[in-house]
Design a protein that fits this description.
Layout lengths: L2 H16 L6 H6 L1 H14 L2 H13 L17 H15 L6
Helix pairs in contact: 1-4, 3-4
């Protein structure tokens, strides 16, 4: 863990103690399931700043799943391409045949 992650854990410990949810920082650092459960309980009991702190810490510890890349838009069906070529043919022959 880097210094920023440790600072965020310390901020979480102090903020959680204020809302009546003590956190064991040694166990928090060693046990990811305890850390996740502690952060979820704190986020449920805290305000916007507390939830933001939890999200920052989860991101810093790699506990957030990356979003999947967006799917490309489906291409037009083959019927549209066939119909377009028929219209092109009709547009070329405007006059009557001799």
């Amino acid at each position: 863990m880097d210094n920023e992650a440790l600072r965020l854990i310390a901020r979480l410990k102090v903020a959680a103690a204020r809302v009546g949810h003590p956190i064991d920082v040694v166990r928090f650092a060693a046990d990811r399931s305890y850390a996740r459960a502690s952060m979820q309980q704190f986020a449920a009991a805290s305000d916007e700043d507390g939830a933001l702190l939890v999200l920052q810490l989860m991101d810093k510890l790699g506990m957030t799943a990356p979003l999947p890349p967006p799917r490309p838009a489906p291409e037009p069906a083959a019927e549209t391409a066939t119909a377009g070529s028929k219209n092109d043919t009709d547009a070329r022959y405007l006059g009557r045949l001799r």
